[in-house]
Protein backbone atom coordinates (compact mmCIF):
# COMPACT_ATOMS: atom_id res chain seq x y z
CA UNK A 1 0.00 0.00 0.00
CA UNK A 2 1.31 3.43 -0.90
CA UNK A 3 2.50 5.63 1.96
CA UNK A 4 1.69 8.84 0.09
CA UNK A 5 -0.55 11.26 2.00
CA UNK A 6 -3.72 12.49 0.20
CA UNK A 7 -3.69 16.23 -0.58
CA UNK A 8 -6.76 17.04 1.55
CA UNK A 9 -5.28 15.21 4.54
CA UNK A 10 -2.00 17.05 4.07
CA UNK A 11 -3.68 20.46 3.89
CA UNK A 12 -5.87 19.76 6.93
CA UNK A 13 -2.92 18.50 8.91
CA UNK A 14 -0.78 21.49 7.92
CA UNK A 15 -3.53 23.98 8.77
CA UNK A 16 -4.19 22.48 12.19
CA UNK A 17 -0.47 22.29 12.94
CA UNK A 18 0.08 25.96 12.02
CA UNK A 19 -2.93 27.06 14.12
CA UNK A 20 -1.75 24.98 17.05
CA UNK A 21 1.79 26.32 16.77
CA UNK A 22 0.63 29.94 16.69
CA UNK A 23 -1.75 29.58 19.61
CA UNK A 24 0.46 27.44 21.77
CA UNK A 25 3.15 30.09 21.50
CA UNK A 26 0.81 32.30 23.52
CA UNK A 27 0.29 32.01 27.28
CA UNK A 28 -1.56 28.84 28.21
CA UNK A 29 -3.77 30.55 30.77
CA UNK A 30 -4.98 34.13 30.51
CA UNK A 31 -7.56 35.58 32.88
CA UNK A 32 -7.58 38.83 30.90
CA UNK A 33 -8.51 37.26 27.58
CA UNK A 34 -11.06 34.47 28.06
CA UNK A 35 -11.53 33.89 24.31
CA UNK A 36 -7.76 33.59 23.88
CA UNK A 37 -7.72 31.08 26.76
CA UNK A 38 -10.39 28.98 25.03
CA UNK A 39 -8.56 29.05 21.71
CA UNK A 40 -5.25 28.22 23.31
CA UNK A 41 -6.77 25.30 25.18
CA UNK A 42 -8.34 24.10 21.92
CA UNK A 43 -4.98 24.28 20.18
CA UNK A 44 -3.38 22.14 22.86
CA UNK A 45 -6.06 19.47 22.49
CA UNK A 46 -5.88 19.29 18.69
CA UNK A 47 -3.88 16.44 17.23
CA UNK A 48 -3.44 16.19 13.47
CA UNK A 49 -5.07 13.16 11.82
CA UNK A 50 -2.57 10.31 11.42
CA UNK A 51 -0.97 9.90 8.02
CA UNK A 52 -0.67 6.38 6.69
CA UNK A 53 2.79 4.97 6.58
CA UNK A 54 4.14 7.37 9.23
CA UNK A 55 4.95 6.85 12.89
CA UNK A 56 5.61 3.55 14.66
CA UNK A 57 2.60 1.62 13.42
CA UNK A 58 4.53 -0.06 10.63
CA UNK A 59 8.01 0.26 12.10
CA UNK A 60 9.84 -2.96 13.02
CA UNK A 61 13.26 -1.44 13.69
CA UNK A 62 14.92 1.68 15.06
CA UNK A 63 18.21 2.74 13.50
CA UNK A 64 18.66 -0.76 12.17
CA UNK A 65 17.86 -2.43 15.50
CA UNK A 66 14.98 -4.92 15.29
CA UNK A 67 12.26 -4.40 17.87
CA UNK A 68 10.11 -7.18 19.37
CA UNK A 69 6.46 -7.15 18.28
CA UNK A 70 5.17 -6.75 21.84
CA UNK A 71 7.39 -3.73 22.65
CA UNK A 72 4.97 -1.06 21.34
CA UNK A 73 2.17 -2.22 19.07
CA UNK A 74 1.09 1.25 17.99
CA UNK A 75 -0.11 4.68 19.12
CA UNK A 76 -2.86 3.22 21.33
CA UNK A 77 -0.46 0.89 23.14
CA UNK A 78 1.96 1.52 25.99
CA UNK A 79 5.60 0.31 25.96
CA UNK A 80 6.62 -3.12 27.26
CA UNK A 81 10.36 -3.42 26.62
CA UNK A 82 12.68 -5.43 28.86
CA UNK A 83 16.36 -5.00 29.63
CA UNK A 84 18.05 -8.21 28.43
CA UNK A 85 21.45 -9.15 27.02
CA UNK A 86 19.75 -10.79 24.01
CA UNK A 87 17.23 -8.06 23.11
CA UNK A 88 17.53 -4.52 21.76
CA UNK A 89 17.64 -3.00 25.27
CA UNK A 90 20.90 -4.28 26.68
CA UNK A 91 22.03 -3.79 30.32
CA UNK A 92 24.67 -1.14 29.69
CA UNK A 93 25.91 1.57 32.02
CA UNK A 94 24.83 5.19 31.42
CA UNK A 95 22.34 4.14 28.74
CA UNK A 96 18.98 4.60 30.52
CA UNK A 97 17.08 7.43 32.19
CA UNK A 98 14.01 7.21 34.43
CA UNK A 99 11.16 9.74 34.49
CA UNK A 100 9.08 9.79 37.68
CA UNK A 101 6.77 11.84 39.85
CA UNK A 102 7.39 11.75 43.60
CA UNK A 103 3.63 11.96 44.17
CA UNK A 104 2.76 8.83 42.18
CA UNK A 105 2.69 5.53 44.11
CA UNK A 106 3.34 3.53 40.94
CA UNK A 107 6.36 5.62 39.95
CA UNK A 108 7.45 5.41 43.60
CA UNK A 109 7.75 1.63 43.26
CA UNK A 110 10.13 1.89 40.30
CA UNK A 111 12.18 4.56 42.05
CA UNK A 112 12.43 2.43 45.18
CA UNK A 113 13.88 -0.46 43.19
CA UNK A 114 16.31 1.98 41.57
CA UNK A 115 17.43 3.13 45.03
CA UNK A 116 17.58 -0.32 46.62
CA UNK A 117 19.56 -1.78 43.70
CA UNK A 118 21.79 1.36 43.60
CA UNK A 119 21.15 1.68 39.87
CA UNK A 120 22.23 5.31 39.74
CA UNK A 121 25.67 4.41 41.10
CA UNK A 122 26.28 1.18 39.18
CA UNK A 123 24.11 1.50 36.05
CA UNK A 124 24.11 5.29 35.68
CA UNK A 125 20.30 5.59 35.78
CA UNK A 126 19.51 9.18 36.75
CA UNK A 127 15.98 10.56 37.17
CA UNK A 128 13.95 13.52 35.94
CA UNK A 129 11.07 14.44 38.26
CA UNK A 130 7.86 16.14 37.13
CA UNK A 131 6.01 18.67 39.29
CA UNK A 132 3.02 17.38 41.27
CA UNK A 133 0.58 19.85 39.72
CA UNK A 134 -1.07 21.03 37.55
CA UNK A 135 -1.85 17.90 35.57
CA UNK A 136 -3.89 19.54 32.80
CA UNK A 137 -7.51 19.30 31.76
CA UNK A 138 -9.94 16.40 32.12
CA UNK A 139 -8.31 14.65 29.17
CA UNK A 140 -4.87 14.98 30.79
CA UNK A 141 -3.62 17.69 28.42
CA UNK A 142 -1.02 19.09 28.47
CA UNK A 143 -0.07 16.77 31.33
CA UNK A 144 2.71 16.79 33.89
CA UNK A 145 5.27 19.61 33.76
CA UNK A 146 8.96 19.86 34.50
CA UNK A 147 10.73 22.79 36.06
CA UNK A 148 11.81 24.92 33.12
CA UNK A 149 14.27 27.80 32.81
CA UNK A 150 11.77 29.99 30.93
CA UNK A 151 9.02 29.71 33.56
CA UNK A 152 8.19 32.65 35.77
CA UNK A 153 8.65 32.28 39.51
CA UNK A 154 10.66 29.83 41.54
CA UNK A 155 11.20 26.23 40.51
CA UNK A 156 9.14 23.68 42.41
CA UNK A 157 11.39 22.18 45.10
CA UNK A 158 12.11 18.51 44.58
CA UNK A 159 11.08 18.52 40.92
CA UNK A 160 13.72 18.82 38.19
CA UNK A 161 14.12 19.97 34.64
CA UNK A 162 13.90 17.34 31.93
CA UNK A 163 17.56 16.40 32.17
CA UNK A 164 17.66 14.81 28.73
CA UNK A 165 15.76 17.20 26.46
CA UNK A 166 14.81 20.28 28.45
CA UNK A 167 11.11 19.63 27.76
CA UNK A 168 8.35 21.63 29.41
CA UNK A 169 5.89 18.72 29.49
CA UNK A 170 6.03 14.97 29.86
CA UNK A 171 4.00 14.56 26.66
CA UNK A 172 6.96 15.92 24.67
CA UNK A 173 9.02 12.93 25.78
CA UNK A 174 6.24 10.56 24.70
CA UNK A 175 5.99 12.17 21.27
CA UNK A 176 9.73 11.75 20.78
CA UNK A 177 9.13 8.00 21.01
CA UNK A 178 5.90 7.95 18.96
CA UNK A 179 4.61 11.17 17.39
CA UNK A 180 1.15 9.58 16.96
CA UNK A 181 0.86 8.35 20.56
CA UNK A 182 -2.73 8.57 21.87
CA UNK A 183 -2.43 7.22 25.42
CA UNK A 184 -1.79 8.89 28.77
CA UNK A 185 1.43 10.76 29.51
CA UNK A 186 2.04 8.87 32.74
CA UNK A 187 5.07 8.16 34.89
CA UNK A 188 7.23 6.14 35.36
CA UNK A 189 8.95 6.03 31.97
CA UNK A 190 12.28 4.33 31.27
CA UNK A 191 14.08 5.98 28.33
CA UNK A 192 16.86 4.50 26.20
CA UNK A 193 19.44 7.17 25.31
CA UNK A 194 21.08 4.97 22.67
CA UNK A 195 18.00 4.09 20.62
CA UNK A 196 16.23 7.35 21.46
CA UNK A 197 12.95 5.83 22.56
CA UNK A 198 10.88 4.60 25.49
CA UNK A 199 11.75 1.17 26.83
CA UNK A 200 8.80 0.74 29.18
CA UNK A 201 6.12 2.84 30.89
CA UNK A 202 4.24 0.07 32.71
CA UNK A 203 4.98 0.39 36.43
CA UNK A 204 4.35 -3.27 37.32
CA UNK A 205 6.69 -4.44 34.56
CA UNK A 206 9.40 -1.96 35.58
CA UNK A 207 9.01 -2.98 39.22
CA UNK A 208 9.84 -6.57 38.29
CA UNK A 209 12.40 -5.94 35.53
CA UNK A 210 14.61 -3.39 37.31
CA UNK A 211 15.21 -5.81 40.18
CA UNK A 212 17.46 -8.09 38.09
CA UNK A 213 18.07 -6.38 34.73
CA UNK A 214 21.45 -4.92 35.71
CA UNK A 215 22.76 -7.70 37.95
CA UNK A 216 25.85 -8.04 35.77
CA UNK A 217 26.85 -4.48 36.66
CA UNK A 218 26.17 -4.77 40.39
CA UNK A 219 28.32 -6.00 43.26
CA UNK A 220 27.30 -9.45 44.44
CA UNK A 221 25.85 -8.19 47.72
CA UNK A 222 23.58 -5.73 45.88
CA UNK A 223 22.53 -8.10 43.10
CA UNK A 224 21.67 -10.67 45.76
CA UNK A 225 19.02 -8.48 47.41
CA UNK A 226 16.39 -10.79 45.91
CA UNK A 227 13.06 -8.95 46.13
CA UNK A 228 11.36 -11.77 44.19
CA UNK A 229 12.94 -14.90 45.72
CA UNK A 230 12.10 -18.17 44.00
CA UNK A 231 10.76 -19.81 47.15
CA UNK A 232 8.23 -17.02 47.73
CA UNK A 233 7.15 -16.29 44.17
CA UNK A 234 3.83 -18.08 44.34
CA UNK A 235 2.91 -16.29 47.56
CA UNK A 236 4.13 -12.92 46.23
CA UNK A 237 2.11 -13.29 43.02
CA UNK A 238 -1.03 -14.27 44.93
CA UNK A 239 -0.80 -11.32 47.35
CA UNK A 240 0.09 -8.88 44.56
CA UNK A 241 -3.08 -9.84 42.68
CA UNK A 242 -5.60 -9.20 45.45
CA UNK A 243 -3.66 -6.33 47.01
CA UNK A 244 -3.29 -4.61 43.66
CA UNK A 245 -6.99 -4.69 42.90
CA UNK A 246 -8.43 -4.10 46.37
CA UNK A 247 -5.84 -1.73 47.87
CA UNK A 248 -3.31 -0.22 45.42
CA UNK A 249 -5.96 0.72 42.85
CA UNK A 250 -8.90 0.23 45.21
CA UNK A 251 -8.35 3.59 46.92
CA UNK A 252 -8.72 5.27 43.52
CA UNK A 253 -11.97 3.47 42.80
CA UNK A 254 -13.37 4.91 46.02
CA UNK A 255 -11.79 8.34 45.58
CA UNK A 256 -13.01 8.90 42.03
CA UNK A 257 -16.45 7.38 42.52
CA UNK A 258 -19.00 9.46 40.58
CA UNK A 259 -21.92 8.82 42.95
CA UNK A 260 -22.82 7.66 46.45
CA UNK A 261 -23.61 4.05 45.56
CA UNK A 262 -20.32 3.57 43.71
CA UNK A 263 -18.35 5.10 46.56
CA UNK A 264 -20.14 3.04 49.23
CA UNK A 265 -19.34 -0.16 47.37
CA UNK A 266 -15.73 0.76 46.61
CA UNK A 267 -14.68 2.03 50.04
CA UNK A 268 -14.95 -1.52 51.43
CA UNK A 269 -12.21 -3.41 49.48
CA UNK A 270 -9.22 -1.27 50.62
CA UNK A 271 -10.03 -2.02 54.25
CA UNK A 272 -10.71 -5.67 53.51
CA UNK A 273 -7.21 -5.83 52.03
CA UNK A 274 -5.69 -3.96 54.99
CA UNK A 275 -7.41 -6.34 57.42
CA UNK A 276 -5.95 -9.31 55.57
CA UNK A 277 -2.49 -7.76 55.27
CA UNK A 278 -2.49 -6.91 59.00
CA UNK A 279 -3.05 -10.57 59.95
CA UNK A 280 -0.60 -11.82 57.33
CA UNK A 281 2.18 -9.51 58.50
CA UNK A 282 1.68 -10.48 62.16
CA UNK A 283 1.73 -14.20 61.31
CA UNK A 284 5.10 -13.79 59.56
CA UNK A 285 6.59 -12.02 62.58
CA UNK A 286 8.41 -9.17 60.83
CA UNK A 287 10.40 -7.14 60.24
CA UNK A 288 8.92 -7.36 56.73
CA UNK A 289 5.48 -8.34 55.55
CA UNK A 290 6.60 -11.86 54.61
CA UNK A 291 9.06 -12.34 57.45
CA UNK A 292 12.83 -11.92 57.62
CA UNK A 293 13.39 -10.99 53.99
CA UNK A 294 12.31 -7.79 52.26
CA UNK A 295 10.33 -8.61 49.13
CA UNK A 296 8.48 -6.94 46.31
CA UNK A 297 5.34 -7.04 48.52
CA UNK A 298 6.93 -4.56 50.91
CA UNK A 299 7.45 -2.15 48.00
CA UNK A 300 3.95 -2.65 46.57
CA UNK A 301 2.36 -2.10 49.99
CA UNK A 302 4.59 0.76 51.12
CA UNK A 303 3.82 3.01 48.15
CA UNK A 304 0.11 2.90 49.07
CA UNK A 305 0.21 2.66 52.86
CA UNK A 306 2.61 5.60 53.33
CA UNK A 307 0.02 7.72 51.48
CA UNK A 308 -3.01 6.34 53.29
CA UNK A 309 -3.34 8.53 56.39
CA UNK A 310 -1.87 11.53 54.54
CA UNK A 311 -4.22 11.64 51.54
CA UNK A 312 -6.41 8.60 50.98
CA UNK A 313 -8.14 8.84 54.37
CA UNK A 314 -9.41 12.38 53.86
CA UNK A 315 -9.08 13.15 50.15
CA UNK A 316 -10.45 9.84 48.83
CA UNK A 317 -12.86 9.45 51.78
CA UNK A 318 -11.28 6.12 52.78
CA UNK A 319 -12.14 7.05 56.36
CA UNK A 320 -13.29 3.86 58.02
CA UNK A 321 -10.02 4.08 59.91
CA UNK A 322 -6.42 5.33 59.78
CA UNK A 323 -3.39 3.05 59.66
CA UNK A 324 -1.97 4.60 62.83
CA UNK A 325 -5.14 4.10 64.85
CA UNK A 326 -6.60 0.82 63.56
CA UNK A 327 -3.73 -1.32 62.25
CA UNK A 328 -0.95 -1.57 64.87
CA UNK A 329 1.04 -4.21 62.98
CA UNK A 330 1.00 -2.37 59.67
CA UNK A 331 1.70 0.92 61.42
CA UNK A 332 4.72 -0.62 63.14
CA UNK A 333 5.90 -2.10 59.83
CA UNK A 334 5.50 1.34 58.20
CA UNK A 335 7.57 2.95 60.95
CA UNK A 336 10.30 0.39 60.35
CA UNK A 337 10.32 0.84 56.57
CA UNK A 338 10.37 4.64 56.79
CA UNK A 339 12.76 5.23 59.70
CA UNK A 340 15.05 2.19 59.39
CA UNK A 341 15.58 2.24 55.61
CA UNK A 342 17.04 5.34 53.99
CA UNK A 343 15.80 4.40 50.50
CA UNK A 344 12.19 4.41 51.65
CA UNK A 345 12.48 7.65 53.60
CA UNK A 346 14.40 9.63 50.95
CA UNK A 347 12.07 8.63 48.10
CA UNK A 348 8.98 9.76 50.07
CA UNK A 349 8.17 13.45 49.66
CA UNK A 350 5.00 14.39 51.53
CA UNK A 351 4.74 17.85 50.02
CA UNK A 352 4.66 16.38 46.52
CA UNK A 353 2.21 13.70 47.64
CA UNK A 354 -0.22 16.06 49.39
CA UNK A 355 -0.15 18.82 46.81
CA UNK A 356 -0.59 16.47 43.89
CA UNK A 357 -3.86 15.07 45.15
CA UNK A 358 -5.27 18.22 46.72
CA UNK A 359 -4.27 20.65 43.96
CA UNK A 360 -4.82 18.42 40.91
CA UNK A 361 -8.27 16.97 41.67
CA UNK A 362 -10.36 20.13 41.63
CA UNK A 363 -13.56 18.12 41.21
CA UNK A 364 -12.86 16.53 44.61
CA UNK A 365 -11.18 19.53 46.27
CA UNK A 366 -12.34 22.63 44.35
CA UNK A 367 -10.52 25.17 46.54
CA UNK A 368 -7.22 23.26 46.29
CA UNK A 369 -6.57 23.64 50.02
CA UNK A 370 -3.94 21.19 51.26
CA UNK A 371 -4.46 19.90 54.82
CA UNK A 372 -1.54 20.39 57.20
CA UNK A 373 -1.99 17.06 58.98
CA UNK A 374 -1.87 14.37 59.96
CA UNK A 375 1.12 14.97 62.19
CA UNK A 376 3.62 13.44 62.13
CA UNK A 377 3.61 12.12 58.56
CA UNK A 378 4.92 8.79 59.87
CA UNK A 379 5.03 8.06 63.59
CA UNK A 380 8.23 7.08 65.36
CA UNK A 381 8.84 4.37 67.94
CA UNK A 382 9.37 1.16 65.95
CA UNK A 383 8.85 -2.04 67.97
CA UNK A 384 11.33 -4.75 66.97
CA UNK A 385 9.51 -7.55 68.80
CA UNK A 386 6.38 -8.14 66.75
CA UNK A 387 5.23 -10.68 69.30
CA UNK A 388 4.25 -7.77 71.53
CA UNK A 389 1.80 -6.49 68.90
CA UNK A 390 -1.87 -7.41 68.72
CA UNK A 391 -3.40 -7.34 65.21
CA UNK A 392 -6.16 -4.80 64.65
CA UNK A 393 -8.60 -4.15 61.86
CA UNK A 394 -12.01 -2.84 60.87
CA UNK A 395 -14.79 -5.03 62.30
CA UNK A 396 -17.53 -3.63 60.06
CA UNK A 397 -19.57 -6.56 58.69
CA UNK A 398 -19.10 -5.59 55.04
CA UNK A 399 -15.33 -5.27 55.48
CA UNK A 400 -15.02 -8.64 57.22
CA UNK A 401 -17.04 -10.28 54.45
CA UNK A 402 -14.87 -8.56 51.83
CA UNK A 403 -11.77 -9.83 53.60
CA UNK A 404 -13.12 -13.38 53.52
CA UNK A 405 -13.72 -13.16 49.78
CA UNK A 406 -10.08 -12.23 49.14
CA UNK A 407 -9.23 -15.85 49.92
Uncertain segments of ≥5 residues (pLDDT<50)?
1-7, 9-13, 16-59
Find the structural class using helix and strand composition. mainly alpha
- SSE pattern, N- to C-terminal: HHEEEHHEHEEHHHHHHHHHHHHH
Q: How many H/I helices? A: 18
The helix content is: 40-55%
Number of strands: 6
Tell me the name of the CATH class of the largest domain: Mainly Alpha
CATH overall fold name of the largest domain: Glutathione S-transferase Yfyf (Class Pi), Chain A, domain 2
Helix-strand blueprint:
Elements: H1 7-24, H2 34-45, E1 61-62, E2 65-66, E3 96-100, H3 105-116, H4 119-123, E4 126-129, H5 170-177, E5 189-192, E6 197-200, H6 203-209, H7 220-223, H8 233-248, H9 250-255, H10 260-266, H11 268-284, H12 296-305, H13 308-312, H14 323-326, H15 328-340, H16 342-346, H17 350-360, H18 397-405
Parallel strand pairs: 3-4
Antiparallel strand pairs: 1-2, 3-5, 5-6
Helix pairs in contact: 1-2, 3-6, 3-12, 8-11, 8-12, 11-15, 11-18
Question: Could you explain the architecture of this structure?
Answer:
The protein has 407 residues and is mostly helical. It has three domains: 1-54, no CATH class; 68-223, Glutaredoxin; 230-405, Glutathione S-transferase Yfyf (Class Pi), Chain A, domain 2. Helices cover 42% and strands 5% of the residues. It has 18 helices and six strands. The strands form two sheets. The protein has a four-stranded mixed β-sheet with strand order 4-3-5-6, sandwiched between helices. The protein has a two-stranded antiparallel ribbon with strand order 1-2. Helix 11 crosses helix 18 (397-405). The termini are far apart.
